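Colleagues,

For the teaching module next term, I've prepared a clean inverse folding example: a structure given as tokens, and then the sequence designed for it. I'd like students to try predicting residues themselves before seeing the answer, so please don't circulate the second half yet.
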């Protein structure tokens, strides 16, 4: 399977500061692999432990799991949950696919700019 390049995005918001930035670049086969990497490497394996109801396309008749919602939205950057207790900060994650040739991907990996 052809490797793809993804930009991993972090949003951190707190009362005194906030930022949205690129955390890293990740080479993965698909978005499922990207979500699992964020879950393991950045969320300590509990990213998808969210029991709130989420809905695709505002279809309030059919709730979906948080994991399904994250996959649809390419992360939880737009999730409005969790901001009520932002005293120490809230961190949200997401990703964006970047068009790149396999040669470009190999160069980014060799230079340490991207990771697998």
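(Answer key — instructors only)
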């Amino acid at each position: 399977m052809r490797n793809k390049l993804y930009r991993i995005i972090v949003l951190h918001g707190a009362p005194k500061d906030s930022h949205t930035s690129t955390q890293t670049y990740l080479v993965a086969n698909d978005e499922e692999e990207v979500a699992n990497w964020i879950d393991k490497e950045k969320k300590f394996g509990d990213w998808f432990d969210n029991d709130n109801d989420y809905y695709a396309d505002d279809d309030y008749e059919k709730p979906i799991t948080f994991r399904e919602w994250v996959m649809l939205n390419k992360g939880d950057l737009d999730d409005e949950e969790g901001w009520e207790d932002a005293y120490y900060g809230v961190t949200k994650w997401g990703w964006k696919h970047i068009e790149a040739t396999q040669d470009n991907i190999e160069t980014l990996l060799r230079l340490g700019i991207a990771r697998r």
